[in-house]
Design brief:
OB fold (Dihydrolipoamide Acetyltransferase, E2P); single chain; alpha+beta; 16 helices; five-stranded antiparallel beta sheet; five-stranded mixed beta sheet
Length: about 650
């Protein structure tokens, strides 16, 4: 046990009263000059980590007992904010108690002792600034050119300086670097994105505002270009190139992470999920790896993809394109008639995809479209077996309590000038579902393997909803005609699954589904396998998308280090410590990407509706607030009434 752990353990177990550094030294018999210096530094580190705080009487107490916590601040455009402290409810912070913190900063917040339902507090220190640049538009006001931040939270709070030799004009969208945070936010223009009416500039401005940079550093491009265009050395890989392996993805997808093989066997099915072996190319601590860590994920917005890896890898050498040899990591599972995995193998392989199938084509085959059946006669039986197996897997997950919210997603269609043409509801049929079924099973299988093998890894975790959120949801469900039974303290996913089943086919379904989703905790990444509530699974990870998600790449790397090669066990402790940081970073980057995608989608939806002012449309009331109610139209657009 380290000195830090000893001190925290003693404080948590109430073995000692609050003590000063001198009293701690006597208590721990650390009175020599070297020991005393070590103790001082250790207590200082515990303070910096916000695990302990120094009281007014210069005695150390647990930070949590003092109501002092570390978290990330989210500021509402109206000025107030909430600090996500990871433990318990978020802490409300009024605009008067912000200190000089900005949106997304990491802060220390002191919670006020109160019996009110809403925890409130004040920010006492900014630990880390997460805004390095600000995007805005140059506007002429009373004959003078002003920088107007696109983020409403920064309105009237920024002192702007034009960049050297920059000729700024009205309508220019500009990236400005923050040069000072206090006493005022000072920024200097570093990049002109273009005019606000130029195609794509609106989307680019949102991406850059979120810190999502489409361009790669040159050293990253250089490393990606060193690998050539083909695979040569098979090494210890299993050669699966003669097997019938296919990919199924969307028509526009170019980064093909996953491929499938399947056959009937005596006791059920043998399903192969073959995933691009990105870890072969993106080696640890290389320029590619460092850049992928900082990006965390690929970002998909209406008119572009900002990839985690350069296109030469994401769409080329790593992508499981048809009729070319590709390195993969394969998870081959034997599945019985109940959908249980009875045996499995995980190994490095080389594959050659025989068909690049689309969801549309596979759906047509499942629906017995004659033209599609004739065109793909060679794999008709394979598709039938896949569909058969997927239904069994879905039934198993259903029994475990997997919750399918069936939330409608928008498909935004734009022209080559970036102008929106139409918005439709994205359809999800059997082909999409069967690929999801297979990916979920492979993720579960790999998670079990790393967990029971005590291998350092990352897990995709989803904690059960809080009692407070469940009480609020139960109240709404009761108003809508359904009474939740049993305790709300430790609710099982099957209870919520029954709620959705009750409303299935009812016009209230979209509303109850959305309310339930809002009552859920956010899924995240964690080095500990604490389970996935929404899927009803004890073990779950993300293994199947290493081209576009950094955690998947890390899981592959851990398999390579500790399963395929057993000579790295001396590195376990270092990896376990590193995974804590990777989990936090990956969760943050995922949330940031989702925020960017939603903001772009909302912007394009608003643009679309500008052309339909005065139109009468059918919609469903999706939520009610004190200031009105929201209506969702059939094409997923939501508006306030």
């Amino acid at each position: 046990m380290t000195l830090k752990q000893r001190i925290i353990s003693m404080m948590e177990q109430r073995d000692v009263a609050p003590m000063s550094v001198t009293e701690w030294a006597e208590h721990l018999n650390m009175t020599s000059s070297d020991d005393f210096l070590l103790l001082q530094n250790t207590l200082k580190e515990l303070e910096e980590d916000v695990e302990v705080v120094l009281s007014k009487k210069d005695r150390y107490i647990l930070a949590e007992e003092a109501g002092v916590m570390k978290g990330t601040l989210s500021i509402h455009p109206k000025g107030f904010g909430f600090v996500d402290v990871q433990v318990g409810e978020d802490v409300y912070v009024s605009s008067n108690n912000m200190l000089d913190a900005m949106h997304k900063d990491e802060v220390i917040v002191r919670v006020n002792p109160s019996k009110e339902k809403l925890r409130d507090g004040e920010i006492i220190k900014v630990l880390k600034r997460n805004t390095q640049s600000i995007v805005g538009t140059m506007k002429t006001v009373k004959g003078k050119l002003w920088f107007i931040p696109t983020d409403e939270r920064l309105k009237d709070k920024v002192i702007f300086k034009g960049g050297p030799s920059m000729k700024l004009v009205d309508g220019h969208m500009v990236v400005a670097k923050v040069t000072a945070y206090e006493p005022s936010i000072k920024v200097e223009a570093v990049r002109i994105l273009g005019h606000e009416n130029d195609p794509g500039v609106d989307v680019l401005s949102i991406l850059l505002e979120k810190g999502i940079e489409p361009k790669f550093p040159q050293e990253v491009i250089d490393q990606a270009n060193t690998y050539g265009e083909s695979v040569d050395d098979l090494g210890q890989r299993r050669d699966l190139r003669d097997q019938m392996i296919i990919t199924i993805d969307g028509e526009d997808a170019k980064d093909l992470d996953d491929a499938i093989s399947i056959e009937r066997i005596e006791n059920g099915y043998r399903l192969g999920v073959h995933i691009a072996d990105v870890s072969h190319y993106v080696t640890e601590n290389s320029p590619l790896d460092i850049e992928a860590y900082h990006r965390g994920t690929s970002v998909y917005v209406v008119d572009r993809v900002v990839p985690m890896l350069p296109h030469v890898l994401s769409n080329g050498l790593c992508s499981l394109n048809p009729h070319v040899d590709r390195y993969a990591i394969s998870c081959v599972m034997e599945i019985d008639s109940a959908g249980e995995v009875t045996d499995y193998q995980i190994f490095p392989s080389v594959i050659c995809s025989k068909y690049r199938m689309t969801y549309t084509k596979v759906n047509q085959m499942i629906d017995e479209d004659k033209a599609s059946l004739n065109e793909y006669a060679e794999i008709v039986d394979m598709v039938n077996i896949m569909h058969e197996c997927s239904l069994i897997l879905r039934s198993r997950r259903d029994k475990l309590g997997s919750i399918d919210f069936e939330m409608d997603e928008a498909k935004i269609i734009i022209d080559d000038k970036g102008q929106i043409k139409d918005i439709q509801k994205r359809e999800r049929f059997e082909a999409e579902k069967l690929i999801e079924d297979f990916m979920v099973l492979a993720n579960e299988c790999v998670a079990r393997h790393t967990k029971w093998g005590h291998i350092p890894s990352l897990y995709r975790v989803h904690e059960s909803p809080t009692k407070k959120k469940m009480q609020a949801f139960a109240k709404m469900a009761s108003i809508m005609g359904y009474r939740l039974k049993g305790s709300l303290e430790d609710i099982h996913p099957t209870v919520l699954q029954k709620v959705l089943r009750h409303f299935e086919g009812d016009e209230k379904f979209p509303v109850i589904s959305k309310l339930m989703l809002r009552s859920m905790q956010k899924a995240a990444y964690d080095p500990s396998p604490i389970g996935h509530f929404g899927l009803g699974l004890e073990d779950y990870t993300h293994f199947t998308s290493p081209i576009r998600r950094y955690p998947d790449l890390v899981v592959h790397r851990m398999l390579r280090k500790y399963v395929f090669d057993t000579s790295n066990f001396d590195k376990m402790s270092a990896d376990e410590a590193r995974l804590v940081d990777i989990a936090k970073q990956s969760s943050e980057k995922e949330r940031n990407a989702v925020d960017a995608e939603r903001e772009v989608e909302d912007m394009k939806k608003a643009e679309y509706m500008e052309k339909h002012v005065g139109m009468t449309a059918y919609g469903v009331i999706s939520s009610v607030t004190k200031f009105g109610f929201f209506v969702e139209l059939e094409n997923t657009i939501e508006g306030l009434v």
